[in-house]
Amino acid sequence: MSVLVVGSTALDSIKTPKASHPRLLGGSASHAAVAASFFGPVRLVGVVGRDFPKRYLELYRRHGIDLAGLQIRDGQTFHWAGEYEVNMNRRRTLATELGVFETFSPELPAAYRPSPFVLLANIAPALQLHVLDQMRRPRFVAADTMDLWLNIAMKDLLRLLKRIDLLVLNDSEAHQLTQDDNVIHALARLHKLGPKYVIIKKGEHGSILGGPQGRFIAPAYPLSKVVDPTGAGDSFVGGLMGYLASARGSIDANLRRAMVYGSVTASFCCEGFGLKKTDTTTRADIEKRVKELAQLTKF
Ligand code: AMP
Fold it and tell me: To 10 degrees, the CA torsion angle through 83, 86, 90, 92?
């Protein structure tokens, strides 16, 4: 079954202590869509400017991503620049240039409206809501967010939470949203805001799910070298949704395994700048690491 992905489609300029790479393919929707594409068909909704390199459009196409919902507008593509410290868990934003993103309104092609699985990747909650308004009774809706929206768009975010099945956010955002530092309490408070399923991501320490079947902890795949963690969260939720859409059976039966697939897909993202490593990854590479994770967590 198809996954519809909406979010940012960006050019990312990334600096780490070892290297710097300007204008890589980035954005929450790019990372999530490529991650989901390992498992089945993906439809992308986003906007880019005329400066968007053709080779990036080819990369999407190589992964079989349907681009009917990608608008190409006069103007510059959304550009984000970030710099990592020696401790790669710490990053600061150097620039956010909205370009064509400033006036973006996600309009869905008619063929996209019945998509059963919807991933609202990181983007303003008002735009995430606008996408939901156009959908025809989706089976499962997941949303990601970021601290920026908690600071400037809380009202829209609270409206969104009432309309989604799964919220995915990182631990600092969960604590900011709930004012509670305890992860168990934070999960309970987040469920009360609407979503039946909540996943709190903890970077290299994995993630924790709260849902009707109780809690579940998914490890991160341990890497000896992290090159660039940009987009790891988006790859996690993209891989998770791709797997869920491809699996037979109920959401409850598949969600835990989907988190493990999400962890593994995200691990490849961290091993190259931007989407470089993910682009050359195969489904067989993913399956191999899933097996390794099963061994690593068996006792
Ligand atoms: P993550 O590493 O999971 O936080 O995601 C990083 C991606 O988010 C980058 O590829 C950026 O292009 C994208 N991004 C950064 N700021 C924003 C924003 N304000 N809205 C949407 N996407 C953003």
Answer: -20
